[in-house]
Amino acid sequence: MLAPDKRKETIDEADIVDEAITSRRSVRAFLPDPVGEETIRDILRVASRAPSGTNMQPWKVWVFSGEKKQEITDAIMNSGIRAEKAKWDEYKYYPDQFFEPYYGRRRAVGFALYGALGIGKRDVDQMRAQHDRNFVFFDAPVGMIFTIDRRLNHGSWIDHGMFLQSIMIAARGRGLHTCPQAAFAPYHRQIRPVLGIPDEEIVTCGMALGYEDTSKPENRLRTERVPLEEFVTFVK
């Protein structure tokens, strides 16, 4: 059993970590306030401590703001390729056919988001406009694109995900918010020439980084998590 002082210290540290994890959300509206480059560097430096098999560290990040971020937006929005027509030809994020319980969870978050924005299920144009906000990084001042070498295997993709999570948690520790965005992956052909991404790298996702705009209704969304009993088995 821990000594009293040590136990208190441990509890305090747990509270800090737990708060960073549980306060992480996919924020979909940001303030224009800039984020300093040194802060971004600190976040990425900390996140690079994420675990990876045999310390391969199979992640690359392309960080940009200002004009370069606008170039990414323009390249996608001027491509003439609607999101529903975009081809997931590098990797597939979702199954061809959704099934329960995942289909129900997906629908629930979609209804909740569009409901918060006052978008009805037949308001196709408004749904498209909201989805297109991905490509302006929800007005965040900092955008990121993540890549992984296509010669690597599934284990490295798991490592890549742990790195992404580490970025999002480190950002929360600095009062910042994020939104991970798979929506960028099908537009890798438009993104590559803007950032100079080599052919051997697969675009896995993007991420918005900045300060939350608390006045926006979409940021009031709080997604639910299922109870432990639905996904944990304690084996005796």
Give a description of the structure:
The protein is of the alpha+beta class. The protein is built from 7 helices and 4 strands, in the order ααβαααβαβαβ. Strands 1-2-4-3 form a 4-stranded antiparallel beta sheet. Helix 2 (37-47) crosses helix 6 and helix 3 (66-77) packs antiparallel against helix 7 (188-195). It is globular and about 55 Å long. It starts with a helix and ends in a 26-residue tail after the last strand.
Q: In one word, what is the shape?
A: globular
What's the N-to-C terminus distance? 24 Å
The overall average pLDDT, rounded, is 95
H/E series, N to C? HHEHHHEHEHE
**Main sheet strand line-up:** 1-2-4-3
Unreliable spans: none
Strand content is 5-15%
Number of helices: 7
Radius of gyration: 19 Å
Q: What's the quaternary structure here?
A: single chain
Largest sheet report: 4 strands, antiparallel
Number of strands: 4
Bin the helical content. Answer: 25-40%
Global structural class:
alpha+beta
InterPro entries: Nitroreductase, Nitroreductase-like
Pfam family, one: Nitroreductase
Keywords: Flavoprotein, FMN, Oxidoreductase
Domain Nitroreductase: 21-211
